[in-house]
Amino acid sequence: MNGTRDWDIRKLRILRTLGERGTVTATAEELMMTPSAVSQQLSNLSAQLGVPLLEAHGRRVRLTDAAHLVLRHADSVFAQLERADAELAGYLRGETGTVRVGAFSTAVPALVVPAVRRLRAAHPGLQVRIRETEAAEAYDLLSSGRVDLALSLAAQAPTARDPRFALVSLLADPLDVALPADHPLVERAGLRLADLSDEPWIFGGSGPWSEITLAACESAGFVPEQAHSAAGWTAILAMVEAGMGVALVPRMAAAERRGGVVMRVLEHDQPRRHVLAAVRRGSETSPRIARVLSALRASARAC
């Protein structure tokens, strides 16, 4: 006998049907074949496996012990194929598979984690892998294929005409001003950015947050004096709490807020930062990507 046998799934189905229906004629009717074609296929399978599968029994044939042994294993194979078929159908519907998401720090708790919770409830077979990244790095990761979807700020986004990416607007995140709890302007009605033009400011030395802070203050008619430079909200808010300056803080960073800091809404100025989702152009039609985008939109609406 050969050490390796050819297991032909189609012929195994014919053998299983014969075992279920009992006769070559009934098997042929079930499978819409001719009786001679059924007999030929089973003869070929017997030759491939190197064992007799049928034996004469009066005017009919019956399965040999070897055939029953083969079918015991074939049943497990067919069951596994059914599971594979169901999983593949789910994959094609976007209900299974993996989507890798790159997101900047404040977007992870505010947008991505709630989206993952929604997806777990609705599509438990769909896995989301999160990678925290700087907004400026998102497009390199996306272009290289290391993530499938990236969250970034509009200030860092390439032009909408860039053929590599499709951009989806998610959220206009309001910016509130962070003041020390004992600041004299904490209770001022209708507080505006211009009221803080003489204050020491805290923001990053470069990058999108520096650009956003400068643009917001310049729109209010002044250039902020940068007293301290920091990129992380923990550090920025600790300095605000200590009375070292004031800062603009995105509302999505609410989890970072401290007891010694008061957040004031700037109703008249209404500064915002715009959050985008980006995917490789064409992949937005993937059912998996579309489901993750839909969940992220739902998170953005809830913010």
Provide a descriptive summary of the structure in words:
By secondary structure, the chain is of the alpha/beta class. The protein is built from nine helices and eleven strands. Strands 3, 4, 5, 6, 9, 10 and 11 form a seven-stranded mixed β-sheet that branches. A hairpin with a 2-residue loop joins β1 and β2. The protein is rod-shaped, with a radius of gyration of 32 Å.
Short description:
The chain has 303 residues and is of the alpha/beta class.
Which oligomeric form is depicted? Answer: single chain
Q: Give me the Rg, rounded.
A: 32 Å
Name the helix and strand elements from N-terminus to C-terminus, one letter apiece. HHHEEHEHEHEEEHEHEEEH
Rounded to the nearest angstrom, the distance between the terminal CA atoms is: 68 Å
What is the count of DSSP helices, taking H or I runs of 4+ residues? 9
Largest sheet: 7 strands, mixed
Structural category: alpha/beta
Contiguous low-pLDDT stretches (5 residues minimum) are: none
Shape, please?
Answer: rod-shaped
Counting DSSP E segments of at least 2 residues, the number of strands comes to: 11
